[in-house]
Structure formats: structure tokens, C-alpha cells
Amino acid sequence: MALTIGEMGKATNTKIETIRYYEKIGLLPKPARTSSNYRDYGQAELGRLSFIRRSRDLGFSLDKVRALLGVSDEKSCNCAGIDRIASQHLLEVDRKIADLRALRRELKAVIDSCDGGTVAECRIIEALGPVAST
Amino acid sequence: MALTIGEMGKATNTKIETIRYYEKIGLLPKPARTSSNYRDYGQAELGRLSFIRRSRDLGFSLDKVRALLGVSDEKSCNCAGIDRIASQHLLEVDRKIADLRALRRELKAVIDSCDGGTVAECRIIEALGPVAST
DNA sequence: TATGAGGCCTGTAGCAACTACAGGGTCAAG
DNA sequence: CTTGACCCTGTAGTTGCTACAGGCCTCATA
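Output (C-alpha cells, whole complex):
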């Protein structure tokens, strides 16, 4: 039941320093301490940290994670708040995917414009810099 | 022909501070100065800055941009180096797109699991934190 | 000629979200 | 009783900028 910070880290794939950082910025509560001043975590903290890490993996900023936690901390709150944050994030993800796809096309064009010869014959540099005129 | 830092910025959609920052970290050379100590740029610098910005837009890190510039600075070098960097970057972009798509699926699942009721009935929190047992 | 708005200068400090020390205390095994 | 792995605090570094503060310079207009 009692967990050290290292065990928390292993369980959630989080560096120790990151956990302390989350505590410092108030995402994680200050935990109990053992007699030797070690942090002493329970399941609740583990759950909270899992939630944070999972949200981070999904690309939520720490600020959004804080908002999500805030919403979920008020027990009686309806989950429309969470839904709103997540839906908005979905839009951002879609936009990011579209951007990356456009970028991919351009990158491919850049690579294809290189025939393996020397820079003098290669168009990559010009393809990236709209300089041309001197 | 002569450009102020502000004109450079406008031409490449770059903030003045960013240009000075590129100079500080050695991506841009220290330019000539006017009698009143203003930076005095020419077409070569404009081209270089364009290249940097374009590469950044394509998601290359400043370190990779530096590598690209290094390769292109050696006139006789074949462009295989550039091609290698760009191809590797393309792989990263593809990976990122795949990740985002997986994320999108998960986000969608999270959103769908919310029926607009209260948190008590909503599965979003549990969906994100693998805690369950207490 | 003066004056006001805008541009430029240097230098430092701040942002996110960590990560990496330095310099120490603690604990369990052999 | 010592060794090595863990933990503690606190500070400074990372990337790629961005935002001041405090001060010149320049140009158009009154």
C-alpha cells in the first residue's frame, strides 16, 4: 500500500524529479512522510499521477491537466467540462495531423529533388530558401 | 540591398528578438553595422534566415538546421548528407502522425464514454487513470 | 528647429516541462 | 561496518524563443 517515490516512478514511467516537480507546481499534493522524511504515497496519489501522465501522453498541457483534475475533483460537477476540454483537444489533434500531413508532402518533395549528386546540382537548399536573386 | 533587422523580420515572418537570438547562438553570422550601430543585412543573410525559418517550419530542430547549414556550406559536398537528415526527419514525421492518430482514437473513446451526466456516471476519469483498486 | 513616434541597441529574465547535477542523509545486505 | 542503492533539498541547465528595461537613432511633421 505505501509507496516510495521511486516505486511511483516505476509504476507510471515517470522520473523521480518529475514527480517532485509536479508536487512543487501543485499538481500532486504534498504527501505524508516517513520518520526519515521519505515521501510516502498511497493508491490515491498513484491514481492521480497515472491520470496526469496519461493526460500528458495524450498531449494535454499541464494547465489542461490541472483543469481536468479540477473538474474531476468536484464530485457533483457534471462532466460537460471534461467533455469540452477533451473535445477541444480533439480539434487541436486533428489540426496537428493535417499540418503534419502537409509537412510530409513538402519534405517528400524536398527529398525527391535531390538526385544524390553534389550540392551544386541539388535543389534542396533552394527548395527551402526563397532567396534565388542576388 | 541593405536591410534592417526589422525588414529581415518582416520578410521572413520572424521576430526581431528571434533574429538576434539566432545570431547569438551562431546560426546567423554577425552582420555589418551602420555608422549608428544598426545591423546591416544583405541578400545572403536574408537567404540564410529564410532557410532557417523554412526548416524550422518543417519541424527541424535548431541542431538539425545547423547540420543542414553545415552540409550546405561545404560547396563540394554531395547532398547525401542533407538527404539523410531529411529522410530521417520524414520517418519521425510519419511516426508522429501515427501517434497522433492513435491518440485521436483514444480521445474519441474518452469523449464518447461521457454521456453528459455527472462525474459519478462518467468514465472519463477512469479511462485515463489505471487506478481502479483502492 | 523641435518633438513625437517609431525603430534600433544591449542585457537580463521569463515561459513550458522537465532534466541534471551537487552535496548530503538513510537503509538493507553481506 | 561498509558499500551501494535509494532518498532529500536546492539550484541550474535544456530548447526555442519572447518580453521587458533602459536607452540611442531617425524621420516626418508642426
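Confidence is low (pLDDT under 50) at residues 130-134 of chain B.
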